[in-house]
Each structure stands twice: as C-alpha cells, then as structure tokens.
Amino acid sequence: MNNKLVNPVWSSLEETHKKFSIQYDEVTFYQPTICPFGAFTNTKKTEHALNEYSKLTDSFFLVSESKTPTYDTSKIILDKKIEGVQMVLENIQEVTITEEIVPLTEKNVDEIYNLIWLVMPGYYKKRTFDMGKYFGIFKNEQLVAIAGQRMQTNDFIEVSGVVTHPDFTKRGFAKQLTQHVTKDIIEDGKHPILHTTKGNPAIKLYEKLGYQLTRDMNWWYFTKK
C-alpha cells in the first residue's frame, strides 16, 4: 500500500476511480466535473498535459510528494503551491458519539456543496459527491457538519470534506464525523488516510483519533491564462 500512497491521486485513478480518469501519457486527471486533481509520474510530460486539461477547466491541481511539474508559462499560471501532509491511521481511538450521524444522499448534493464552499472554497465540485460516501449532522433540518470520502484504491480510502458550519463549531462534530467515516472505511476492508495543509490545527485532532503524519504532499494550483 505504501507505494500507492506515494502518489495517491495516480493510484486512485488507476484503480477504484479509473472511470473518472482523463489520461495524457504519463499524466492523469480526474474529470473536471468530479474533482480538479491530477497526478504524474514524469515531470517532462506535465507541460503538454496541463495545456490540454486547461481546455476543459480554468483551474486545477497537480499533486505530488516531491516532484515539481513543468508548465508552459505562456498558457498556464502557477497560482500557488500548497504545502500539505499525508496522514495514515495507525491505531483507531474510541470516541463518544453524542450526535445523530446520517448518510447523505443525492438529495443533499447542493447542501454539501454550499457548506464546503462556505468553509473551504475553491476545490470542491458538486459531483465530487460521486467519489465516495458522505455523512452529516443536522440541526433544525439544516446540514451543519459533514465528512466524506475522496480518493480510493483497492487498499485505502481518503477521509475528506470534513467541515462544520461556523455557527456550530467547537461542539465536537468534526471529531465524531471523522471517527464515523474512519470506522466505515475499516468496515469496507480498507485503510483510512487523509490529507491536510502543513500546520493545520486539525492535525492535533487527527492524531488524537489515531492518525500519524507519514509524508509531505504538495498541491500545485494552476490557472489558465
């Protein structure tokens, strides 16, 4: 599994999410309506691939542990490099569940999209919902917290989309939802992982749940000129 975790986007698009892939030689992307993420195995191939993918969407990411993609500065702008980390579950820790956590369905797609864009705008697409299961907590019939699944292979599933409405923070919702999704992944016979930005205060929460930092994972954010 470790070999797949070195390049998780690539691994996902080679296995469980192959139906969502767009291939450009040694570079692969998710369909832009699903998720604007791509990965590569050869840095010399990324320039052409980025030019081609930019015909489909205006902004997108390449994800890599340590390799630096090349790009055509006449057509593509590197907006920023987001320094992230990968975490893998080591030993699951028990959490008291006090909230009703419910599976989210197609009828919740707009609510999920709106909540994620309120808290973490910029990357989530409505059809990101198709990548895995989502669970939520409602208060007064309002979706106030969610957690879901994103990248997947035959061996691992990524916990993602962990967000809480600003009016409902500090109530333990994120902790309970992350634990719920983690257990659901284990029940599916796969290993839970997640990604976040370096220095994110949430890292301490994930460590308390049994996740351990394993490696850097950089997100190169490009926009079309």
User: In CATH terms, what is the fold-level topology of the largest domain?
Assistant: Aminopeptidase
Q: Could you name the ranges where pLDDT drops below 50 across 5 or more consecutive residues?
A: none
Q: How is the main sheet built? A: 11 strands, mixed
Rg, please?
A: 17 Å
**At the first level of CATH, what is the class of the largest domain?**
Alpha Beta
Given the C-alpha coordinates, what overall shape results? globular
Q: Within the largest sheet, what's the order of strands?
A: 1-2-3-4-11-5-10-9-8-7-6
Q: Please report which band the strand proportion falls in: under 5%, 5-15%, 15-25%, 25-35%, 35-45% or over 45%.
A: 35-45%
Helical content band: 10-25%
CATH architecture name of the largest domain: 3-Layer(aba) Sandwich
- Total number of strands: 11
What is the arithmetic mean of pLDDT? 97
Task: Describe the model.
This protein is an alpha+beta fold and 225 residues long. The protein folds into 2 domains: 2-84 and 220-224, no CATH class; 87-217, Aminopeptidase. The chain has 6 helices and 11 strands. It has helices at 2-5, 8-14, 46-53, 109-119, 173-187, 202-208; strands at 21-24, 27-30, 37-40, 59-64, 76-89, 102-103, 134-139, 142-152, 156-164, 191-197, 211-224. The longest helix is centred in the last third of the chain and has 15 residues, at 173-187.
Question: What is this structure's SSE topology?
Answer:
Elements: H1 2-5, H2 8-14, E1 21-24, E2 27-30, E3 37-40, H3 46-53, E4 59-64, E5 76-89, E6 102-103, H4 109-119, E7 134-139, E8 142-152, E9 156-164, H5 173-187, E10 191-197, H6 202-208, E11 211-224
Parallel strand pairs: 3-4, 9-10
Antiparallel strand pairs: 1-2, 2-3, 4-11, 5-10, 5-11, 6-7, 7-8, 8-9
